[in-house]
Design a protein that fits this description.
12 strands, about 220 residues, Glutaconate Coenzyme A-transferase, alpha/beta, three-stranded antiparallel beta sheet, nine-stranded mixed beta sheet
């Protein structure tokens, strides 16, 4: 088989990531995060990363470890406030002015990433108009509704969590693993898929949820489905 995107080492899969990279991380709530790859990224000792993730504060993912280590300069997310009374590592850094935050409505977050993957540089949406989130952005009227210009989000690296992948890089997901994963993979120049199982043979086209054209590297980490 001429094409085999499977890699043994998580560290090798992110060895070429540079300081200042824009990194997208899939998952939702406490599920579907590529935690092994996030740990490998942290061990690279990179600095000034921009992290694009649904939530910057969830305790079940390792995104907060990257943030706490001072490796992240900016976070683009939809949820920046942690649960409970205590402050998360991200919130402490943000309040101290040591990290930049761009907080986006979740629909706009998804659409900006999808637009990035589709090659659409910007789009208008009524979501956010009249709020602080629209300050400084271009506004136009369409059909009697005022809409805000939102720009696409693209990245250097997408880290996605899947269930299985074949040698070509076709990926299947389970449950929340699919949240943001396909869109992020299409919007980044390099995608690493962390999966439970790497198959020896190509999977059926009916099983494919993330096509191999969007996946550059596959790392199997084992575990339960």
């Amino acid at each position: 088989m001429a094409i085999d995107k499977r890699m043994v080492s998580p560290s090798d899969a992110v060895a070429d990531v540079k300081d200042g990279a824009v990194v997208m991380v899939s998952g939702f709530g406490g599920a579907g995060f590529p935690n092994i790859m996030l740990d490998a990224l942290r061990e690279q000792g990179l600095r000034d990363l921009t992290l694009v993730v649904n939530s910057a504060t969830h305790v079940y993912s390792l995104t907060h470890t990257l943030i706490e280590a001072g490796q992240v300069a900016k976070v683009i997310c939809t949820a920046a406030r942690g649960r409970g009374e205590g402050l998360s590592p991200f919130e402490k850094l943000w309040r101290d002015g040591r990290i930049e935050l761009e907080c986006i409505p979740q629909g706009n977050f998804s659409e900006r990433i999808r637009a990035g993957g589709a090659g659409i540089p910007a789009f208008y949406t009524p979501v956010g108009h009249g709020t602080d989130l629209a300050v400084g952005k271009e506004v136009r009227e369409f059909g009697g509704r005022l809409c805000v210009l939102e720009t696409a989000i693209t990245g250097d690296l997408a880290l996605v969590r899947g269930d299985r992948a074949d040698p070509f890089g076709n990926v299947t997901f389970l449950y929340a693993q699919m949240n943001f994963g396909p869109a992020m993979a299409s919007a980044c120049s390099t995608t690493v898929a962390e999966v439970r199982e790497a198959l020896e043979e190509p999977m059926s086209h009916n099983e494919v949820q993330l096509p191999s054209v969007y996946v550059d590297r596959v790392v199997a980490v084992g575990g339960e489905p």
